[in-house]
Amino acid sequence: MSIATDRLNAIKGHLSGNHPKGLLAGEVAIITGSGQGIGKSCAELFAREGAHVVITDIDAGKADQVAADINAAGGKAIAIAGDVLDPAFPEALVQGTVKAFGKVNHIVNNAGFTFDGMLHKITDKQWDLMLAVHNTAPFRIVKAASPYLRKQDGENKCIINISSTSGLHGNIGQANYATAKAGTVGLTKTIAKEWGRFGVRCNTVAFGWIDTRLTRAKESGASIEVDGQKVALGIPQGAGNKKSTVNPFADIPLGRAGTTEDAAGGVLMLCTPFGAYITGHTLEITGGRGI
Description:
With 291 residues, the protein is α/β, with parallel strands linked by helices. Helices cover 40% and strands 16% of the residues. Residues 27-198 form the Ketoreductase domain. This is 3-oxoacyl-[acyl-carrier-protein] reductase.
């Protein structure tokens, strides 16, 4: 039976209700930055579809809790905490995954953050850090997993690199972030071309306004610590406490911000047999914004 037939049967089984173990049953997924937000929702959704999930986050407590919650709900997950900026971590992450589950099927390179500033004020550190977390870290993780992903074993395998509409269209105050997120598209297309012959698909997901700590008001105080420096997250709402009368969703046809579950759904779809012939693609999840 061919790989295409196997995947078609999996889809038919799912649609008919005869696929109770899920579309990713027995497959292994590494999801970075999965201690909260979009990564956490991806981990929970992948687990509900039968995947064995590796939770990895710089915050060990949050990673452990997500893994514990998934296991308590009947899924299967482990936590491997660490900093994706640490050159030694990708190898440790992949080896820990293989030790626990024996293989790697999917990688979702989700970990990241913003470090905004107007172009004429951005420091070299701000610039370098965005490229390091959004380009170099995913490159190292994918490279570390290459011996397992490049096996000609007929397994369903997909890499998802998370981008942003900032990477597709640019954004004021985000020259560093936009450049880095644009770079994920080039990385994705190259992996798709080089590893397609091994049955590996690679796609980018570009999010618009998803309700996370990166899109909420900067005045709410969310931050991340990098090399001992506190980096504020979020979007400045301007001086004063007056509530804006402008509808922030006016240019979004669906009329609302996306949820982390909305975001996770698109990521999952590309990794399932439903995405079996999709590779090198950038899927925009924006509620229609920008069309």
